[in-house]
Structures are given as C-alpha cells and as structure tokens.
Amino acid sequence: MNQMSKLDHFIQQAVSAAPVSGTSLISSLYGDSLSHRGGEIWLGSLTALLEGLGFGDRFVRTSLFRLNKEGWLDVDRIGRRSFYRLSDKGMRLTRRAESKIYRAEAPAWDGNWLLLLSEGLDRNTLADVKKQLLWQGFGTLAPNLLASPSQRLADVQALLHEAGVAEQVICFEAQSPLATSVSALRARVEECWQLTGQNQLYEDFIATFRPLLPLLREADEDELTPARCFAIQLLLIHLYRRVILKDPLLPEALLPAHWLGQSARQLCINIYRRVAPGALAWVSEKGETSVGPLPQPASSFWQRFGGLKT
C-alpha cells in the first residue's frame, strides 16, 4: 500500500469509526474553516467540501435545514442559490467554543473558586442554565450549588445575563486551602466532574490520531494534497471538539495522575499545524459567498494553538 492510499485509508477509517452527526460535523466545519472568514458559504461549496469525505448532497441539505431551524444558521436565497451563514446565536456559541478548542495550554490557577447558588430558579430554567454552565466547565457540588476553579466571573455573568437569570443566581468567590485538603478535594473533584470518563475520551482520541503522525512525517507535498489536508483537519477538529468541549479544563493541581488532556492537546496541535496550510487553500478554492470568494482569514485564525505559520 503506497503512502497516498495510507492517508486515504486513515480518512476513511476515521469517518466510519463512529456514526457522524451531520449537524455536528457542519458545526465543526463552520467553526474551524468559516467563522474567521465571514461565516457565510454557498450550499454548493459546502457540498463540494464534504463530498471528499463521502457525504452527499442530501446529508448536507438535511443538516443545514436542521441548523437553520435551530437558529444556528441563517439562510439567504439569491436566485436559485442558497447561502448559509452563522447567525448571531451561532457565532456567539462558536466563539465560546473556540476559547476551549484552540487554547495552547492549560489555564493558570490562583487557587480561587467561583461558586453559583441557584435556588431561586424554576425547574425548567434551572435545567437549561445548569446545562450551559456544565458545558462551560462547572461541576455540581450540591443540587443547587455549582463550582468552577477556572471560569472568569465576567464571562459567567455574561452567560447568566444572556439566559435572563443574572439577578436570580448568587455568585461567590472562594479560595481553597489546597495544601491542607488536597486528597479530599481531588477525590471530590474527580467525582463531581467525572474525570475518569473524560480521560477515557482523551485516550480514545489519542489512539485514533497518533497513527497519523508518522504518515504525515513521511508524506511529501504531492501526497499531502489540499483536499486531504482539509479532510484530516475537519475530522481532527470535529473529534477533538467532541472531547474538549466536555472537559472542564481544571487546573493541573486538581487533576488525577496520568491525565491525558495535555497529550491529546499537543497531538491535535502537531497535526493541525501540519495540515492547516493545505486545508486553508482547499477552502479558498472551493468556498464561495454571496459576494464572491471567501475573504482572507482574520488575524485570530493565526493565533490558534499558540500561533500558526502565515
């Protein structure tokens, strides 16, 4: 089997390893390839980008319909062409996810905790707000008490304002005497944040993508085509996104031994930096907006993972 077919074989294996949600995959594509380039693209361009991974027109159309219905994408129809762009909601959620996906290292910690007491909310509102806070990295210490050692107060207050509950949730800032309670605290953290399961997700991600590294090292530029770079990058970020967005990004002092989060992040960074130039070129070639070619990437794109080569 030659090198070129090995890369194709890897892509096919990654696609078929688990069921792929169309809405999730296209959300990954918008977040990774389009959010920093205006956030809009022609339906035909999306179809062209995804056909190389084996996804057809019906897959794309059905997924776009659902994302539009959920308010994640807006659509403009010009003649017989449809152009889908990130809505305000979609862009807001994308930016929130980017802060976790593309960070280059674990956040520093000063020992402080942010505590939220939510006793004044009705059951449905509490469930919705709690879901958003858990996604942001909070853990449940008690039925109505959530905690995070890594979230900024300003970011959390913005989220609570968006949800319309800022005046109903009580915020506290506290400090943990880590030196005197490290064992008990780590045990509680591991239970509340379900770190064993999260570590298994990282282990699975590493097992999937580590075999790709030698293939990329051995591949020459003719073999590592823009189309293959795009396919690899989209699958990489799509699968990494599914893992990292569940990670509360706890400080290293609170993590269990043999935590695989940093190894998974570095693996993702190494692969991303290798394929990003080709993937960028492929999206530029295939992408079309309602006013012509896609714009050049914003400066924030080049800051991903601590810096990409321009």
Protein described:
- Residues 193-283 form the Transcriptional repressor PaaX-like C-terminal domain.
- The protein is an alpha+beta fold.
- It contains 13 helices and 9 strands.
- The longest helix has 26 residues, at 261-286.
- The mean pLDDT is 90.
- The strands form 3 sheets. The protein has a 4-stranded antiparallel sheet.
- A hairpin with a 2-residue loop joins strand 5 (139-142) and strand 6.
| Tally of helical runs | 13
Shape: globular
End-to-end separation in angstroms reads: 34 Å
Helix content: 55-70%
Mean pLDDT across residues: 90
Which residues form runs of ≥5 with pLDDT under 50? Answer: none
Q: Got a strand count?
A: 9
Percent in strands: 5-15%
Structural class: alpha+beta
CA radius of gyration is 21 Å
Q: What characterizes the major β-sheet?
A: 4 strands, antiparallel
Protein name: Phenylacetic acid degradation operon negative regulatory protein PaaX
InterPro entries: PaaX-like_central (IPR048846), PaaX-like_N (IPR012906), PaaX_C (IPR013225), PaaX_trns_reg (IPR011965), WH-like_DNA-bd_sf (IPR036388)
Please outline the helices and strands.
Elements: H1 3-16, H2 22-34, E1 40-42, H3 43-51, H4 57-69, E2 73-78, E3 81-86, H5 88-101, E4 112-117, H6 123-135, E5 139-142, E6 145-148, H7 153-162, E7 170-175, H8 178-192, H9 195-209, H10 212-218, H11 226-244, H12 261-286, E8 288-289, E9 292-293, H13 299-302
Antiparallel strand pairs: 1-3, 2-3, 4-6, 4-7, 5-6, 8-9
Helix pairs in contact: 1-10, 1-11, 2-4, 2-11, 9-11, 9-12, 11-12
